[in-house]
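Narrative of activities, Objective 1.

The group set out to show that a structural description can be obtained from nothing but a protein's sequence at a throughput compatible with the screening campaign. Below is one input-output pair from the validation batch, recorded exactly as produced.
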Amino acid sequence: MTRGKQKIEAQRKNAEKNQKSKGSQLEHRAVALKVTCPICKVQLANQNQLGDHYGSKHPKEKPPSNSE
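Output recorded for this entry:
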């Protein structure tokens, strides 16, 4: 166990260490999701996921081309 000044310093260092991991998961998610389904407005990460999405959610529709 630490006492006095050592304890205060250890608490301060732990508080700084825990505080550094700031940033919202929603912000990171918005950056990663770049492709949007034009029918249902679901955001996807890439064209491959968009093709899979169309296959499962919109089987009668054709997926848009990669030029978007």
